[in-house]
Design goal:
This protein has helices at 15-30, 52-80, 95-103, 120-134, 164-178, 193-197, 205-220, 223-226, 241-249, 272-280, and strands at residues 6-10, 34-40, 86-91, 108-112, 139-142, 154-157, 182-187, 232-237, 254-258, 285-288. The protein is of the alpha/beta class. Keywords: ATP-binding, Nucleotide-binding.
Length: 295
């Protein structure tokens, strides 16, 4: 018998974490998956200022608080979705390590985002960004509790690379499951070449746009037949990719992008477009691992 598919959601008791919990519960329920609720109470490093006894007491207190957080989250899910299989656990590891470990055994990991507060960069830097860059599974970052309707589109950002296949596979599957339209977006000029090299080296914008539209057509070849019920629209613009996707995210139910962009390499691990979406997108963002991603 195959092991049940699962979604892991990281919670810490905050309102953004509750939004992530609700999103993950709905996702798991719709797909008959198991929901794993995880709270991590470890510190990134030991606290040398505390003695061994004090440190042990602090860890015990953190674990008790963590168990309360997990129990409350599990109760919240069971109250709303009594038929959903849900379990909770507390990890003594720091949040990033605990979630990375969980991603090896999960089909999806979901985390919240605190938004543009003074601590946002800390939260994103230590959890969301690191997890999105290094997780073994796809990752969803939820920024708000906004609910998607049946006509709310799934948006997929593509760049013409081989990684588009994984992005489109995930985006089509999500749109098909939700009965939502799919918008495939491609920015065909994300730098101002005229200002850098002069007008003589820049092809006509008409030709460039035609090439970009042909690229999108090629990348979509075959997907119509695989997902005949998905309504597909395309957006092809001379724009910076992140700016275009952020605008589309304002009315999207989900934005799907690859973990790397053009010119991505293992040392960067998370493309600049994905990074900006994690910080600023209004819709949940699904980060998909490419075919050559390293774990």
């Amino acid at each position: 018998m195959s092991e049940a598919r699962s979604v892991t959601v990281g919670v810490d008791g905050s309102a953004p974490a509750m939004a992530a919990l609700d999103w993950a519960a709905q996702y798991a329920h719709a797909r008959n998956m198991v929901l794993q609720v995880l709270t991590a109470v470890g510190w990134p490093g030991e606290r040398p200022a505390y003695g061994g006894y004090q440190l042990a007491e602090l860890k015990d207190a953190a674990r008790i608080d963590g168990q309360h957080t997990v129990d409350a989250a599990v109760d919240r899910v069971r109250t709303v979705m009594p038929g959903l299989a849900v379990a909770g656990r507390v990890s003594d590891e720091p949040a990033v390590r605990a979630l990375l470990d969980a991603s090896v055994f999960s089909d999806l990991v979901v985390v919240g985002c605190r938004g543009l507060t003074p601590t946002a960069s800390v939260v994103l830097g230590s959890v969301s960004t690191a997890l999105s860059a290094h997780a073994a599974s796809p990752v969803v970052v939820v920024r708000s509790d906004r609910q998607a309707g049946p006509t709310t589109p799934v948006v997929a950002g593509i760049d013409g690379s081989e990684r588009d296949e994984a992005t489109l596979e995930a985006a089509f599957a999500e749109a098909d499951r939700a009965g939502a339209p799919l918008v495939v977006a491609h920015a065909w000029s994300d730098v101002t070449l005229v200002g850098v090299f002069g007008a003589s080296v820049v092809p006509s914008w008409i030709e460039a746009r035609h090439d970009a539209e042909e690229l999108v057509h090629r990348q979509l070849a075959g997907w119509h037949g695989k997902y005949p019920d998905v309504r597909i629209g395309t957006v092809v613009e001379r724009e910076q990719p992140a700016h275009m996707l952020l605008e589309l995210a304002a009315t999207a139910g989900l934005v799907v992008v690859g973990s790397h962009g053009r010119g991505g390499f293992a040392g960067m691990r998370l493309g600049s477009v994905a990074r900006r979406l994690l910080h600023y997108a209004d819709a949940p963002v699904l980060i998909v691992r490419g075919p050559h991603a390293e774990h």
